[in-house]
Amino acid sequence: MRRAIQLAVRHRPHPNPRVGALVVTDSGAVVGEGSHLRPGEQHAEVGALEASGDSASGSTLYVTLEPCVHHGRTPPCVDVIIESGVRRVVFGITDPDPRVAGKGAARLRDAGIEVVGDFAPEDVRQADPAYFHHRETGMPLVTLKYAMTLDGSVAARDRSSRWITSEQARTDAHEIRARSDAVLVGAGTLRSDDPRLDVRTEGYDGEQPRPVIVAGRQPLPETAGIWTRNPLVLSTSRVDLPGGELLEIPPDDNGWPDPRQAAAALGEVGLLDVLFEGGPTLAGAWWRAGVVTRGILYLGAMIGGGSGIPPLQAVFETLDQAIPARVTAIRSLGPDIRVDFERPER
After folding, report:
1. Dihedral (C-alpha) 122, 124, 127, 130: value to the nearest 10 degrees?
2. For labeling, which of 32, 127, 217, 233 is most exposed (least CB within 10 Å)?
3. Closest CA to 86 of 50, 34, 35, 131
4. What are phi and psi for residue 264, nearest 5 degrees?
5. Which of 155, 124, 130 has the alpha carbon at shortest distance from 142?
6. CA distances from 307 to 92, 153, 285 (A)
7. DSSP code of 339?
8. Which position among 45, 167, 175, 248 bears the catalytic label?
9. 304 near 172, Cβ under 8 Å?
10. pLDDT for 109-120, tens place per residue?
11. Following DSSP, what letter does each residue of 149-180 receive, concatenated?
12. Are the C-beta atoms of residues 313 and 280 closer than 8 Å to each other?
């Protein structure tokens, strides 16, 4: 199953799940491997069975996720599995998608195939947390990422913030972008930084995340470089764009795109793993709305010693208004510290 997970995480096929599969004979020989590349292409099980050919008959198929039983862009995997002649199927976790959710396993058992289910559920879930979060909540997995000084500022009063962290931390941040479906910022960040929101690690040749811009009340800058990357713009009204695609979102009480409806809209268009790099005001609104599921803080080895800009700007008049978070990991990156945290489920 570890090998199947390794195959699964090589690709980002959202809104479909990351899936890896391999066919193993009774002697322990791996005769075929497969992974799901992108929507519309063959599933991992089909790829592994095709690669194994006649050797699949009488063998065991290991797959990270319960095989599908419904017609989508491709036929059901269970039909191909049954026709292959495998004698046993071992899958890592039951698919929470209601179109599958135990039906795939039942179909295989009805065909006389031995089925071992939920063999490594937590390992598979951790390999594709966004898929499971979306299928179980209807919302994308939103990760808030920010860097701040030791005394709690993400930028100076003139809004300058390059660079609070070291090259090691910035490289790590780009690796997180590479695993994300989308990178989201607000219009203020677009105006002040003209960000590219892409992956720029040496040697990276994978798929780039989709840029997402949350529009405010002011016009968006027409000369921003992001327009060449086909961004998705979330706005409360229909506006003309120099490029990209517009999604109209109902406003919240402040007149900005409502965070919960904005996040749900991203999930509906297949962006399940969203990296939030927006400014402090937008971050505060999305955190208070309960949209942000987890966070990554880079604590730079630097002290501003003044009244800089805090990472989340929101009303915080008494400690009772604070929202608990659970720290899940702490590690060093050169001179800096990375802190991973999550919002506990209520």
Report:
1. -80
2. 217
3. 50
4. -60, -40
5. 130
6. 50, 8, 21
7. E
8. 45
9. no
10. 999 999 999 999
11. -TTS-SB-TT---TTSS-HHHHHHHHHHHHT-
12. yes
Which residue in this structure is represented by tokens 């720029």? 200
CB 105 within 8 A of CB 70: no
For 269-291, the pLDDT digits (tens) are: 999 999 999 788 888 889 889 99
> Residue 28 CB: number of other CB atoms within 10 A?
7
| CB-CB contact of 14 with 272 (8 Å) | yes
Q: Show the tokens assigned to 282.
A: 């937008």
176 CB-near residues (< 8 Å, 6+ apart):
143, 145, 275, 296
Length of the chain, please?
346
| Residue reference for tokens 């060449």 | 228
- Tens digit of pLDDT for each residue in 12-56? 899 999 999 999 999 999 999 999 988 888 899 999 999 999 999
Nearest CA to 286 out of 338, 234, 337 is that of 234
Mean predicted confidence (pLDDT) in 193-211: 90
SS3 of residue 45 by DSSP: helix
Enumerate the β-bridge partners of residue 93. 65
| Ramachandran angles phi, psi of 145, nearest 5° | -120, 130
CA angle (205 as vertex; 204, 210 as ends), nearest 5: 95
Which helix (H) or strand (E) is 48 found in, with range? helix 44-52
